DNA sequence: GCCGCGCCGAAAATATCTTTCAGGGTGTGA
DNA sequence: TCACACCCTGAAAGATATTTTCGGCGCGGC
């Protein structure tokens, strides 16, 4: 984190320290075939690849040096040299730290205890990857925009719609004006009302959901500050986003649809946004939170025991 | 050239992985003045040195490249390149080792990066705790009931309402008849329709939410199989629950409302239920999942590039 | 004071990494 | 169906980084 370059234009993208496996999964879909081979080799055996030179890795993956360098660039490093360094770090972490654990997928005949263990592990992994890959500069910018917004609209459909609602509920609790839209038509008609100083947030894992992109585009063109929460930082939705917050993409499969693991990462991002805003507006947020808690008290029955 | 084979027979010592600081101290007495300066710099700030080239490190220590290489050799590495790799690994290890220090609560003035780390850590903890505390027998029973249910009603209000909707969405996707109720009146009027063989699920963290307990009670009294997903296994809601699924309760505080961490555990339970049911009804669930995926395809825009 | 020993750094030699450029494949539009 | 354009891909040239070589210089012994 203390990297030398203070540089800093728009998106310097800090070289991932240990969020590499996550980044590979996140960016893999936007890679060409050859680059995917390289990325796969790297994610598969960080230690082994760290011991290889560009030429070695190129030969191993049956590609050329140029492709290896290109892949390193795509992953956010200045060149292969730095990727190799990060790889060595990752290898060390893996060796010393946690066990590789359960790498297998969920099978149809897995006992229920295994299902629990695998799902829990997977979601933990998603959280760790998302946290590691989250661009705190973008996050801070989004928080600032939210904290000062006149109103905030959040777009999401399907599973992401629930995440949108979750964010809205939280923001309302601290006194902010927020609304979640899952109806594409209403979303667009509302987006037209937005103006500079307002905030629009689109939540979509694939980044290609037209029903969510469209209102964000409208909001963007009306001058609102736009934020995209997506698992694909190069997807269409980011075209209209001032700030992009990337969630991790975990393995998915037949019994484990994308919606399941993506949701976990999205919720973490949403929580971060919420806490960030609550910090910024603490004087107003704290009493608002207390008040909303108080207001619900009478709807709870006394517990048999306990506090 | 020598990169490939570790060569052989009488290799005196494999490159130290992390025992570098110790090695420096051990070998320091046998070093020349210049080499000591290099070794000291390396032991002092592995991360910083890993970012430097031979020339950079030589300048930093006021020595020459040759000396740096000689030092690397003395420490047991083939050359500076490999020392640097080990250094990067060491730095990564040190950094990750520092991570568990985030046991403290989120403060108002925490930098955003800390917020992300703390939230992620907390939610991971919640997942681990929930997975560990989940009664697989109860879970299996609930899955069996769900898989054979004529219809399923899920009750939840507030943040838990979103979890209820999440479960409903999933069950619908695999062809089960499910409905989420967050309106207490409608929930009760629907609960009256339930009969043996049907399933009712109540989701409430505190276990004391009257709006959720009431419909579950009605369902229970009408002979439906009832399930409670709650953080308090001894709370009122469990009175009317045939099966109780316990979620973990993480720390909460002013800036971290209960809704945030409880939701994570609830979603894990919901995911487990879903996967469990999908396993049991695989022959019907798999094509249903595929179909729902297919149905959405045309609502996605093409990504900028693809595999 | 002279000599030998070995540490030290500048510069050459080599390996490694990066960039450039042109060939080839793929999908698209006519 | 054919032609076009785009973009992936790898070979080789160009730039950096690392390693080796070699001669100077200080230090202690005689």
Instruction: Please state the oligomeric state of the protein chains shown.
Output: homodimer
Strand content of chain A: 5-15%
C-alpha Rg of chain A (nearest Å): 21 Å
Most residues in contact, chain pair and counts? A-B, 100 and 91 residues
Sheet with the most strands of chain A?
Answer: 5 strands, parallel
pLDDT averaged over residues of chain A: 84
Protein model, in words:
The structure is a homodimer of 307-residue chains. With 307 residues, the first copy, chain A, is of the alpha/beta class. The first copy, chain A, is built from 13 helices and five strands. Chain A has a five-stranded parallel β-sheet, with helices on both faces. In chain A, helix 9 links the parallel strand 1 and strand 2. In chain A, helix 1 packs across helix 7 and helix 10 runs parallel beside helix 11. The longest helix of chain A has 23 residues. The radius of gyration of chain A is 21 Å and the shape is globular. Chain A starts with 19 loop residues before the first helix and ends in an 11-residue tail after the last helix. In chain A, 53% of the residues are buried. The N terminus of chain A is likely disordered. Chains A and B meet through helix 6, helix 7, helix 8, helix 9 and helix 11 of A and helix 3, helix 6, helix 7, helix 8 and helix 9 of B. Chain B binds a DNA duplex (30 and 30 nucleotides) through helix 2, helix 4 and helix 5.
């Amino acid at each position: 984190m203390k990297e030398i370059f203070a540089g800093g234009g728009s998106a310097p993208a800090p070289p991932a320290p240990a969020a590499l496996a996550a980044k590979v999964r996140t960016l893999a879909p936007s890679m060409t075939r050859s680059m995917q081979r390289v990325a796969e080799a790297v994610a598969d055996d960080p230690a082994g690849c760290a011991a290889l030179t560009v030429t070695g890795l190129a030969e191993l993956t049956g590609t050329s040096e140029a492709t290896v360098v290109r892949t390193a660039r795509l992953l956010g490093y200045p060149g292969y040299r730095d990727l190799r360094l990060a790889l060595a770090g990752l290898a060390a972490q893996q060796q010393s730290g946690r066990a590789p654990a359960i790498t297998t997928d969920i099978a149809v005949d897995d006992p229920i205890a295994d299902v629990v263990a695998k799902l829990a592990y997977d979601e933990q992994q998603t959280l760790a990857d998302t946290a590691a890959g989250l661009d705190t500069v973008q996050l801070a910018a989004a928080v600032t925009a939210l904290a000062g917004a006149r109103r905030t609209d959040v777009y999401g459909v399907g599973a992401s719609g629930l995440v949108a609602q979750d964010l809205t509920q939280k923001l309302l609790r601290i006194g902010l004006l927020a609304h979640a839209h899952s109806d594409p038509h209403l979303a667009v008609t509302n987006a037209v009302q937005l103006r500079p100083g307002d905030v629009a947030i689109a939540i979509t894992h694939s980044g290609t959901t037209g029903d969510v992109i469209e209102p964000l585009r409208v909001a963007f063109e009306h001058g609102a500050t736009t934020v995209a929460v997506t698992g694909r930082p190069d997807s269409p939705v980011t075209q209209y986003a001032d700030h992009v917050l990337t969630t991790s993409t975990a393995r998915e499969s037949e019994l484990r649809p994308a919606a399941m693991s993506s949701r976990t990462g999205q919720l973490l991002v949403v929580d971060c946004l919420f806490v960030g805003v609550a910090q910024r507006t603490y004087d107003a947020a704290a009493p608002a939170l207390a008040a909303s808690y108080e207001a619900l008290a009478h709807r709870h029955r006394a517990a048999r025991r306990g506090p």
